[in-house]
Amino acid sequence: MTIRVIVADDQEIVRTGLVMILETQDDIEVVGQAADGRRAVELARRLKPDVCLLDIRMPGMNGIEATRELSSEVAVVVITTFDLDEYVYAALRAGARGFLLKDAGSALLAQAVRAAANGDALIAPNVTARLLRAFAGTADPVQPFEPLTDREEQIITTVARGRTNHEIADELHISVSTVKSHVASLMAKLGARNRVEIAMWAYETGRIRNA
């Protein structure tokens, strides 16, 4: 199945580069481009892509605002030049399924798009642990709707370390479908919208200390 993507960045040369990288992938098709967040939202609602790749700093409606508008409708990956914790945190709280720096490289960019399309979340490795540790304990973590099972406790630590469903399945010697079921259960119990919020909860409750 081809993953349909919209790319939004106010710098034409950057936007063109991102499109060229994604178009080299056999399973990814760029179906729309935008120079600002408002246009990206309009295109997303009209074209219904699988993933939106949004820059943070754009005129008018920025990438965070656009993410907030779209995250319940389409998977969003945020990409930026600026490695600032407040940007990452705001993007994830807005519902982004991925966060990358523009120097991440073509392989990681394609991986983030695929992960988002598959319901996974990918954050640039150089910001993941630092970000989650920085915000651990900044808010009172929610109490799970039901106690977590032993297997869910295992799953949550692997999710918090950025593992994909396939990596978790290999590590725990279970099927991918079983991993997906456990992740869905965790989301329901924690009231989390995505895997990133599961990871945040793991850090906030002290389950992960040295990722």
From TrEMBL:
InterPro entries found in the cross-reference section: CheY-like_superfamily, NreC/VraR/RcsB-like_REC, Sig_transdc_resp-reg_C-effctor, Sig_transdc_resp-reg_receiver, Tscrpt_reg_LuxR_C, WalR-like
Chain positions with 4-aspartylphosphate modification: D55
GO molecular function list: DNA binding
Domain of life from the UniProt record: Bacteria
Domain Response regulatory: residue ranges: 4-117
Coiled coil: none
GO biological process: phosphorelay signal transduction system; regulation of DNA-templated transcription
Xref: Pfam families: GerE, Response_reg
UniProt KW keywords: DNA-binding, Phosphoprotein, Transcription, Transcription regulation
HTH luxR-type domain mapped to chain residues: 141-206
Protein name, UniProt field: Response regulator transcription factor
Record organism: Herbidospora galbida
